[in-house]
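User: Can you fold this complex?
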Amino acid sequence: MYPIHNYSEPRKFLVPEFIIGNDCYEMVDIYVETFLGRRVMIVTDPGVIEAGWADEVIKRLKIAGVEYTIFSDLTPNPKDYEVMKGVEIFNSEGCDMIIAVGGGSPMDCAKGIGISSTNMMHVLEFEGVDQVPQPAPPLICIPTTAGTAADISQFAIITDSDRKVKIAIVSKTVIPDISLISAKTTTTMSDELTAATGIDALVHAFEAYVSNASSPITDLNAIRAIDLVFKNLLKAIENPLDLTYRNNMMLASTLAGMAFSNASLGIVHAMAHSLGGFMDLPHGECNALLLENAVEFNYESSAEKYNIIGRTIGIRSEKNDEIKHELIDRIRDLRKSVGITQRLSDMGVKKDDIGKLAGFAIEDPCVVTNPVMPEISDLEKIYEKTL
Amino acid sequence: MKKHSDTKSVDELRNKIIGLGDKSARKSYYPQLQARINELEIAKKKAEESENRFKILLNSTSDGIFIYYSENGKLYLANETACRMTGYCHGDIENLSISDIHPLTYREKILKDFEIMKNGELRLLRNVPVKKHDGTIIYCEINASSLKMDDQDFIILAYRDVTEIRESELRQREIEKKLNEAQKLESIGIMAGGVAHDFNNILSVIMGLTEILLQQNSRDEKISPKLKKIFEASTRARDLIKQLMTISYHGNDEKKPSHLISVINESVAMMRATTPSSIKIINENPLCHDLVMADETQINQILINLFNNSVYAMPDRKGEIKIAYSNEYIDESSLKYYPLLMKGQYFTIEFSDNGTGIKQEIIDRVFDPFYTTKPKGEGTGLGLSIIHGIIKKHDGNISVESEAGKGTKFIIHLPIYEGEYMETKSDSTQINKGQGRIMVVDDEETLAEVNGEMLKLLDYDVTVITSSTDALNAFKEKPENFDLIITDMTMPELNGLDLAREILGIRPEIPVILCTGFSDQITKESAMTVGVREFLNKPVTLKNLAATVEHILSSE
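Assistant: Here's the predicted assembly.
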């Protein structure tokens, strides 16, 4: 059942301190005091504020007598200028720590604000891997979606608004100091958001599992995350207030995060980043649409691992071809069952865009851990099939 | 971002992503923290050193530095010199405002000045009074500049203590004033003396001939009284000239070592008789050194003049005159106050009254000749100038202190005579005739003749010669024909002293009498070394001439 690992290449495993469990966000003031925060910047978005999760944090800060500044002037796929505006407010208000409350966008934005303010650099200057010289101020993440796992990962994805491309900042310095992970915060998500983020978690797990940098430890996390998503995503949508499914999805997201933060990702994310940056398309849906064709492209290079995934989700076939097709079917079924039925062309992607999209995607750092190194034409073909 | 085109860069990127790149290690920030702490420690040390240097610099200046808050005048910092200068200690001074170190009456003005200085329009204030902690006042020169520190405006003031410079300047001005005064008096004196000299010669003729006529007509009751009146009038004229010559410091005098207290006592006794009894005279007689080389007559004159002034200053004839004596050693430091004196031991007379006093605006003029506040006819304005002249001639000093309505005090310093006191015999009044061959030399024909006539009257054998070279030739021809030579001092070609020297070169034992007037710049001592036996002051009276000639010839 487990893939054989030869250990000839060393592996690292790094995750932040995190607390997982319902209501654990109520411990936020303890950590603010621990990090000697005197004026906190809360980075969130209007949706999260409306859902009342920012207020939960503010309530605790008020009890602790800590001052705060709210920054929520940001959009999905956070833009560089939004980050820099946050930096300006962080500095002018004399803030000394950050609490990110929300999904991937507020958390990535909070990471960008933190490193830009301490290093006094523009956020785009950190593009790439290990490009952040100094650590950020203390960062507490309270995720309110189950899928992005920015509260776990060493990734921050920011859109370069001039180049219309998502840049990846990969650094130990963007791993939060503490994450307070409570599935209760995900009960306010819409069906669409539950679906998109849930599929995002599935793609994280899939790509980390077949990554050429996977390790026995990331494998454990990834395979369990895949299992959990297949068994719980639909039920979470059908029973949005049932904490059992929400907890399982949150666990799946966290495990997938632990896996991909250490084993990295593959071409699905590379191509989704390109779509998100170039056309500002929702990350989760792009991932969902691309996964099937990516599996088809990658299967040969990592058949053993794909077979294990197949068996995990109950595929009984023995032949590789059959397994591959069943696996792709199962992914498609899940996607459609959670309501992601459109194609890239429905979202406005045109055939003419493909060359450019593939050009950006081939430069994405996620490409290098894909089980097989693709040519640009390979990526064009996948975009075409998904159109 | 790097292109993934080659395998090597792909591998590198992959390594970094999976946390195995060169810089992928999670940092321990302890070393950075330690380095930062070290940097801060060094910075702190540097700041301390810099502060130390600043303090050394601040405290090494001889100026008192005050730094105060521009907006409220409160002191922020003062250096050591500032504390020493004002007598405050550090803790106290920093609780003060800048105006507190100035006298109350000056505060409003100084604050206004500082306000102007704040704008940079004024940089230096001179002679600003500063009130020390103990209340004494010093004077400072203040230099200002402004400074911004920690977003606050400050004014830096450098106070330079100029009290001593100021005092010495004032003193210097006082000395210059005194010297100017002395110079003025001296030039007036020279002028008066010059006039007196010519008058003397004229008087000598009048008096000499009058005396001759008196001798010849002593029994003629018609002529004799008239001649006596001429002689008396001439005598008064001679006395006035003598007074004028006293002012000029050059008049001949009869100085000898005198115990001044007894001399003054005599004058006081005399004045007591003529002073209204309602004026109390206090004459203290302490034990002190009073031996001074002095002309007693002139000292007497000083006392008379001072008495007269004091009595005049008491219109209701009520008051007190006090005379006190003391000894004072004038050293380097007191020379500042008496620039005309020499270092040494002095006999000091303080003559004070409680009369009307002298108004401050005229006090500088009281020693000027002919300056008087008395109505016309009541005073000549010579009294105090004569006193000044006499004191000057005695190498002394007179100063005056007075306050209108309270009285006046004259302080006289006369140098103590270090030699011995000698009793002197009083002159006889008898005119005696005698015998002897006398040569009389004077370039002024009338004077020569008058002197010759006087000697002939006394039965001497007289040869009158009006040129010094003729006189020398006559003597050379028959040196044995003369028993005595009487010569004038001031003559063309060969003066009296040169003539005496020549004659004494031929006959060292022959007595020579030198007649001297005011303008003759000769001392008895220098004449005595040449061999001159005796002096006669012009105008020469018959009595004087007779006594001197008799005295010399009888001792031959």
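Chain B has 15 helices and 17 strands. The mean pLDDT of chain B is 83.
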